[in-house]
Structures are given as structure tokens and as C-alpha cells.
Amino acid sequence: MAEGELLIKNGVVFDPINGVKGEKKEICIRDGKVVAELKSPNVKVIDAEGRVVMPGGVDIHSHIAGGKVNSGRLFRPEDGRKGVAVRTKVCRVQSGYSVPNTFATGYRYAKMGYTFVMEAAMPPLAARHTHEELVDIPILDNAALPLIDNNWMTMDYVKTGDTDLLAAYVAWIMKATKGFGVKIVNPGGTEAWGWGKNCGLTDAVPTFDVTPAEIIKGLAEANERFEMPHSIHVHTNMLGHPGNFEVTKATYDLVKGVKTAKDRQVIHTTHTQFHSYGGTNWGDFVSKADAISDYINQNEHATIDIGSVILGDTTTMTADGPMEYSLHQLTGRKWTNHDVELETGSGITPFLYSGKVSVHTIQWAIGQELALLVKDPWKVALTTDHPNAGPFIGYPILISMLMSKKRRDEAAEEMHSAIFKRAALPSIDREYDLNEIAIITRGMTAKALGLHEHGKGHLGVGADADVAIYDISPEERDAGKIQKAFLNTKYTIKGGEVVVKDGEVVATPAGKTYFVTPECDEGLTEEMLVKLKDKFEHYYSVNFNNYPVQDAYVPNPYEIKASWSG
Questions:
Q1: Which of 138, 269, 391, 539 is the least buried, fewest Cβ under 10 Å from its Cβ?
Q2: Of 371, 187, 363, nearest to 277 (Cα)?
Q3: Which candidate, 34, 14, 32, places its Cα nearest to that of 24?
């Protein structure tokens, strides 16, 4: 955090959380926070000269750290050879394209104006490694979502129907891993993959006699026993399968009646593009973004991020092991899989999205359709499920597409003709404005994560002084210029310190790690620990006392306490 005072003047500010929609106003910063006014006669001044000013970006879902990500880097040396160099004041950093190293991750996000990123899948047993990599990423504040869906303890408690003890386990996992919220990936399906199987929403998980539907509802109810900042964060079953939109809608219905402990959604479903598929096979595969969008438009308990496809080569990686194997079978490209004892697993395989392939073309359309068909931008977030649908450095491309029907139409003409027959994108006239872009990259993401209460995603008095200044006027409509501006900021300011100037990284302060500490009933915790310690004694390869992440792994902590709501 920078000390001293900084004034940003003459900028056109978009700050949706505070209702600021393109107003010319000053932003006053003191000691890393936004303040009402400045007092020093020697204040530093940045003249934004009519440029677009927004809060620092908040990415709700990305894969940037941990064993799976690091394995992806090692797995694809060819990705490193075609990687992009990042220029900084100190050195030139070469890194992978789809799976950049820790340094380039921080630099590239900062150059786009982002200051907070959520690591979306942390195996609890591998939490130490995840935190080591998060600490190694410069500039960005961060957090991580531990995977709690295929854990044996979770399934045991779901089977017995004891939501309070399940909540006690959730609380313990959050504390042990220094995690932020409940992540669910193909619930039951990853455990079934250990037997060479997968699970639909109502299929029984092998040996556990529970269904994914029961796991999702049970974890939603357990999560709402606390005033958690974030809802359950769900990767629904049957990702990437034609016809899976029905599973997605049924998943939303499961938690429709769950009462929230906080004023927010009950469920956030991620990379929804992969879950909005119609048809019975790849031959009759069609977009069902309209059906998913209709559901989101008509209901208030669910939010989504889009997981929009960026054309080109990338590296897919997910705890949805059976889906990764299916991709490997489709492409014949190399594949690896890893099982994490009692908890989860993951697979990795490269993938090429081509605009000349009908299926990829429709996938490309679906992500944008979701953003354009969901009427309220406060229900949708911009993501690519980095790197699964493409690397995060493709965000400026998506922004330019959402803001320009002309650019979408030009792109569609170069793609497979299936886009005109089996997708709705060419018929959609809507264009986002800059305020809506600020919502889906800042306001909505901060609110859905509950971080707006902790100074993120806005520029109100008391907020963190995280600011992005884009070298573009609010009236600009040229898609190429929009893309260029959002790829490299004029200035990125993190905690009151200029970290990017004219597209060059000029400072690399350490980011903070946000984690949640649920305050659970001691009696419940003690009862839960009896069973948990038995699991460690008989099944885990590590000692119970060696499992939790020590404070030393989080040198710049930001703790959020979540009280028990009962």
C-alpha cells in the first residue's frame, strides 16, 4: 500500500456500485484508500484527461495457482515457446501463453486493470502449494475456493442428512485451508471417476449411496448456516455434454428454496457456456443460452459467469476428471489425470478452438449470448474459465465483442455457417455500454463474492485505492480501439501505488490473500472432529496435525469472519 496522497482528476468515472455512470469527477486517495478530500499541498496528481476510469477489475473465476496449474505449465513446454513477453520497468518476462507463470500472471492482469483474482479450485490437501503460488503472484490480491464436493466427509454427512455437522466440516475446511468459499465441481462425478464412471444429477455415487443433487443442496444449506460472503460456487454435472442445459436448470431448482444468510445469490454457477448445450449429440448440437438466460432473468437466487470461448489453442484443466478424459478421446492429444486422496481429482489436456469447426463456433457464440441475453448485468460476470475456454488475456476481445454488434457480425462471417443455424448470436442487436462492462468485470463480481463490503470493486470513500485508467474516451465505438485500450491501461493503481503506466509494469507490490473464518459452534465442531480424525487415521497419508495451512503460508492476510446464523 502506497503512503501519501494522490489525486486523479478529469477522468470519466464508471463506478456502478456507487451509481456513478460516466461522470467527470475527482478520485482522492490517501494511504491506499479512497477518501473524501485531500489535505496535503504536495499531493501527486494524475490528469486522466477525459479517459475512462474504473475500479480495479475483480475476476470471479480463474485458475492461476496450485498443483493443477503448475502441472499444466510443465505438461506443455510448447505453450511456453509460443508465450507472450511481458515488458516491465526491470526486465522482460517470457512466459506461457495459456498457462503463464506466476510473475506473468500478475503482470498481465495488472496491465488489463485487474487487481483481484479468485483462484477457483483448491484441493484442500494441496492448499499449501496453492498459497505458495498465490504469494508468488505480484500485485494481485487473491483468494482461493477449496473443493468440498467429492470429499468423503461431505458425502457421509449428506447421506445422514446432518446439515449442522456438514456445516461444521465446511467451517473446519475453510480454517484449515485458509479458503474463501465452497467450491463444487461435478459433485459425485469426480469420485465416480475413480471407478471409471461419471454421475448425472440423480445418479448414485459409487459406494456412498448419495446423489449429486443431494450434495449440492446439502452444501448450499450448510453454507447458509454462516454469514459467508459468497454463495456455493458450482461447476454443474455433465459439463460439455449435448443436452446438459436441462441439468443446469435442474441444479438451479435444487436450491431455489434455500434461505440465504446474506443478501446475495444462493448459487453461483461458473463457466455457464459449457453448461448451456442442447441437442442429443455433436451432430445436432445447438445453443441453449436462451433457455439458461430465461431462467436467470426470471429468478433472483442464481448468478452466472460466462466462460466464453477465445478461439485458438489453450490448455484445459479441471477437477472434472471424466470430462478431461472425454476431451482426450475426442482430440487424441496428450492427457494426464491426478487423484487427490479422499477429496478430489483433476485432468489436463490441450485443446484447440477453431472457428472453422461447427461445434467450436457454437461454443464461441454461447458465451456471448449468455452475456447479451441476461437482461440484468448484475447477474452475469465476464470470464473465460481461464485457461479452459481460453486465456484471460482474451478479456479485451470479449469486451469489444459485447460492445460492438458490427464486430460480432464480421467475426461470424469468418466462422462456420452453423452459427447462423444453431446459435442466436447473429440475431442479437444488444450492445453493452461502458457502465455495463464495469458491472460484469467489477461491480457484479465484487458483490457476488461479498468483497464490496471489504473495499473491492468500487471507488466509494473507504474503498481500496485500486483504479484502472483506460486510454479511451467514453464515446469511443471502434471495436479495435476498445480492445487495445482494455488490453493495456494508461495507468493501473493498486492500493494507491501506480503499478502500470503506459502499458508497462513499473512496480510489483505484494498482494493480500483473503480468506474466511466461519465461527462455528464448539460442540458441533468437537463432534465432527471425532469422525474426521478417524478418516485421517485410516485413510489419509498425512497426519491430522500436519494438514492445516500455517500462518506463514499467508504473509499478507486479510481475514473475513463469518458468524453462525443457525
A1: 539
A2: 363
A3: 14
- Report which of 311, 553, 491 is spatially closest to residue 414, judged by C-alpha positions: 311
Distant-in-sequence, close-in-space partners of 146: CB < 8 Å, separation ≥ 6: 122, 123, 124, 127, 173, 174, 177, 179, 182, 183
The residues that bridge with 87 in the sheet, in sequence order, are 92
Q: How far apart are alpha carbons 278 and 207 in whole angstroms?
A: 31
417 CB-contact burial (10 Å; exposed 0-12 / middle 13-18 / buried 19+)? exposed
Q: How far apart are CA 239 and CA 323, in angstroms?
A: 7
pLDDT tens-digit series, residues 306-330: 999 999 999 999 888 888 888 888 8
Instruction: Name the pLDDT band for 2 (thresholds 50, 70, 90).
Output: low
Say what the pTM is: 0.96
3-state SS, one letter per residue, for 4-71 = CEEEEEEEEEEEHHHCEEEEEEEEEEECCEEECCCCCCCCEEEECCCCEEEECEEEEEECCCCHHHHH
Q: Is 91 exposed, middle or buried (0-12, 13-18, 19+ CB in 10 A)?
A: exposed
C-beta neighbour count of 165 within 10 angstroms: 19
- In the chain, the largest separation of any two C-alpha atoms, in whole Å, equals 71
Phi first, then psi, for residue 143 (nearest 5°) are -160, 170
Kindly state the DSSP code that residue 558 receives in the 8-state scheme: E
H, E, C per residue of 220-265: HHHHCCECCCCCEEEECCCCCCCCCHHHHHHHHHHCCCCCCCCCCC
- Give CA–CA dist 26/10, Å, rounded: 7
Q: What is the pLDDT of residues 504-520, one digit of tens each?
A: 999 999 999 999 999 99
Single-letter amino acid, residue 25: K
- Kindly tell me the burial class for residue 331, based on how many C-beta atoms sit within 10 Å of its own C-beta (0-12, 13-18, 19 or more): middle
Query: Which residues touch 417 (CB under 8 Å, ≥6 apart)?
Result: none
Cα separation of 268 and 251, whole Å? 11
State the CB neighbour count (10 A cutoff) for residue 498: 17
AA letter at 100:
P
- Going by the DSSP 8-state scheme, the letter that residue 564 receives in this structure is B
For 251, residues 6+ apart whose C-beta sits below 8 A from its C-beta are 201, 213, 216, 234, 236, 237, 267, 269
All three cell numbers of 501, joined, read 503506466
Is residue 441 left, alpha or beta, with left meaning phi > 0 and alpha meaning psi from -120 to 50? alpha
Instruction: Give the whole-angstrom CA distance, residue 501 versus residue 87.
Output: 11
